[in-house]
Structure formats: C-alpha cells, structure tokens
Amino acid sequence: MIFHIAVCSPDPVLRGRVQRHCMEYYARRADACIVEQLESTAALLRQEEAGSRYELYLIELPAANPCSGLQAAAELRRRGVRAPLAFLAHTTAYAYEAFRVNAMQYLHIPFRPEQLTALLDRATEPEYGPVIPVATAMGLRALPFADIEYLECTHHVVHYHLASGEDVASLSLRVPFSEVAKPLLADARFLQPHRSYVVNLAAAAQLSAGELWMRSGARVPIPRGREPAVRAAFRAFLEG
C-alpha cells in the first residue's frame, strides 16, 4: 500500500522534519509513502477540492494563527473527510477544540521522534494494528482496537460499543471482566474508569463531573473516588 500524507505548516523546517520521519518510518515497514508539503491551510483545502485524498493529515496550529488549522480541519470534516487527522501545536490550549473535530492526536511542539512514530503507528493501525477476539452468538469476531469506543459489562455479557455505532455482545463470560479487558488495558489508549467499563481515550470527547462523554454521545459513569485519576489520565493522553 502507498500511504499519502499531507503535512500542512507555514514552517518549511517543520515540514521537512516531519516528511523525513514519515519516509523513514514507512521504509522500515517496507511500504511506500508519499508526503505532500503544504504551506497553508488554504492550499490544503484547495488540494482537497481538486480531488487529492490522503490517509493522514498533519496540520500545524501556528502560534500566529492557531485557529486557521482548527477551522481547516472542521471544513475537511464538513466535506466528509474521515481520514485520521492530527495537530502539531505550540501550546496545549487548543487540545480540547482539536478533539471536537475528531483529531486522532495532538502533539505539542517540540515533540520527540518517538511521539511522531507512535502517531504513525496509530494512523497505520487499520493495516497493522492489534485486534481482540470476541466469541459471539454469530461466531468469533476479531475487533480492531481502533474500532472500539468502550466496553460495558452487564449480567456477565460484555458489550463492545464500536465507533461505527455497532454493539457487539459477547457470549456469557466464564472469566472475570478484568481478564477480558487485560489485552486492551495493556494499550495506553484504554482505561478502566469503572469496574464495569473500559474506555478508549482516543474516542472520548470530554470529561465532566461523574461522567466521561464519548464521541458517540454515550456517557460512561465515573465513581467519585476515581475522578482525579481519570482526569489525570485523560489529560496525559490528550497532551501526548
């Protein structure tokens, strides 16, 4: 597969650094990669209008005008672009706004090479990512981690709520829920805020008193004693 990546930034040094890292990353995987450098969000939107499509959008929020990147991302989503999108920013002040346009990640500049590698791992996950096997009434399903929004365990049945809106119900459990969730909790994206729930922080929209709101609109309860730990974990995830 050839991965097409758009790198949008007014800074040619940053664009070049990101391009080199992407090229080296996909070369290690023996995959091809095409990186298009775009110096403005206007150029990015023109490319989209002309029919250019990318597997990943990396958009800088420049210190002089950070809202331009957020507005461009919102416009891409309005036009139906569903590809992974991430922001490179000089401040964490816009992290929550970034996730409102379904951003996959928000990297604080200067970022470490391993942070960009982790971002590319997540963007490439539909091809290479882990899956969890689930025994259902219809047979065995393999659910990619990236597709899971949250898990809910009720009456010894685990409901895998997917980002697509599908609810995949397991057969009745013969092991504790904690054992079922163990593979997910070994992944930094997943957190258990409640004994009956495991959430994918990449699919979380906001944290309010006693609840974690998912992008689908679902609300996951958080016991009062767990709120500080959940808040800290969510903030750490958003800040990369």
TrEMBL record:
It comes from the Bacteria. One of its GO terms (molecular function) is phosphorelay response regulator activity. Keywords: DNA-binding. May play the central regulatory role in sporulation. It may be an element of the effector pathway responsible for the activation of sporulation genes in response to nutritional stress. Spo0A may act in concert with spo0H (a sigma factor) to control the expression of some genes that are critical to the sporulation process. This is Stage 0 sporulation protein A homolog. It comes from Faecalibacterium duncaniae (strain DSM 17677 / JCM 31915 / A2-165).
